[in-house]
Design brief:
By secondary structure, the protein is of the alpha+beta class. 31% of the residues lie in helices and 19% in strands. The strands form four sheets. Strands 1, 2, 8, 9, 10, 11, 18 and 19 form an eight-stranded mixed sheet that branches. The longest helix is centred in the N-terminal third of the chain and has 21 residues. It is globular and about 70 Å long.
Amino acid sequence: MPGHERDLSCDVLVVGSGAGGLSTAITARKSGLDVIIIEKDQYFGGTTAFSGGVLWVPGNRHARDAGVADSREAARTYLKHETGNHFDDAAIDAFLDVGPRMLDFFEKETEAKFVLSAYPDYHPGVEGGARTGRSVTAAPYDARALGEQIRRLRPPLETITFIGMMFNSSNDELKHFFRVTSSITSAIYVAKRLANHLKDLALYRRGVKITSGNALAARLAKTVFDLGIPLLTGTPAQRLISENGAIAGAVVRDDNGEYRITARRAVVLASGGFPHDKARVARAYPHLARGGEHLSPTPVANTGDGIRMAEELGGSCDIRFASAAAWMPVSRVPLGNRTGVFPHLVDRYKPGVIAVNRQGHRFTNESNSYHDVGAAMIAEGAASKETAAWLICDHATIRKYGLGYAKPAPVPVGIFVRNGYLQRGATLRELAGATGIDADGLERAVNEYNEGAVRGVDREFGRGTTAFNRYLGDAEHKPNPNVAPIGSGPYYALKIIMGDLGTFDGLSTDVVGRVVRRDGNAIIGLYAVGNDRASIMGGNYPGAGITLGPIMTFGYITGRHLAGQQA
């Protein structure tokens, strides 16, 4: 029992404030339980606040209302193909059955709102794959609704905003910014948008018109505050408390020292997986094991604390998946005396951009998903320490689309060359010399690519032949939104290395989230959600939102189970 004057007690203690922790806490509180959330970082929102805010939920109401044809059987077949030997019947069935109900619950009972996304599955040609309808995105939000709590909301990832401004996920806003120098309508729109954003920065020290995962985190947190759930930031868990063979709470720490939080029913671990646990990722990531680089844009507080505490009491986190994380090609961004991380989400899909290895060879379809391109980079680098690639384009392409952190016109490209982010060469051979790429290989790769690209065809890797490839290309570029020849110089190169969006491997649990020992017995009073729990996707990435969709579904299942209710 608590004895120290600062000690607290509750029914459920949730460790972590991303979508997994917040959805579990909300569900448990709505079911009548007393909940406390603690967060190691000074901000709440976890990795969710950096994410695209997309949930993959087959059978969702938004798709039905839009008349999108799909079936549970098709989604199950697709997942069986995608997860392979890691297909978990019970967990997959629970996800498919409960996911749509979870979405309805949060839209009816909380501040969360979603809109149907046009994303195709990442492998729509696989049996059961869908061309649209399975992904939904968090609706934009005015963060001023958080009141004073806005200061604790994790800001979006710096490198994917424009002076802190987030863009509407429909891409309509981005089109205005791309056309600012060629359209009076766009110029007026951009001027107004910038003026309002600068006003928000002056008043709130951040943008308040938020989208994507930042909007999802804010919406869930607003409900947490409305329900009176304490959310204690800057309060990491130090160790779990075990009494009479069951977990009874945790010792936590803040600026004033350590104290206990007793949990009468359970502790739920939702601390974001282990992307910054250096020792564990060195074993789990093959490119690190052979001496390569890795740069994760996930919050640096995600150091595997929840997993470590569970292991100390018998839980297990095996490295079971060939891909232990959701791979994301990234680049290092010079930000004065700091280094930023840019995740390459969109530029690879644009016509006129290719990726080559150090030998100058193309090695994959650049318009595949970030995870698939990352896996191809890791496989390509298997024989060497370096796991890297270079994005290559001509001057016209970079001025139209930008490249990584380098913005399109009218932002000058020279600043990115001068600070070393980009390499530039008047010829391909000069560019090869600046990057260390084999010059003969680069010239040969560009020439071979261009032979088909002039007709909109990628003869080697078939770019633009799937619905997913085309979705993030340039729909106005014909005949192939992903393919255009590389024209005259000057030419630009940007080095990309491996990063991740979060870990897939995690604690072994049963369907309702109880952490289980190696003998299959549950640790009484200990649960895991979010990336602390092993992904049901088996280390694969079938579609947009396959992290957040299951995370919130199992958060809902766990929250209901803690209250003695079935989901």
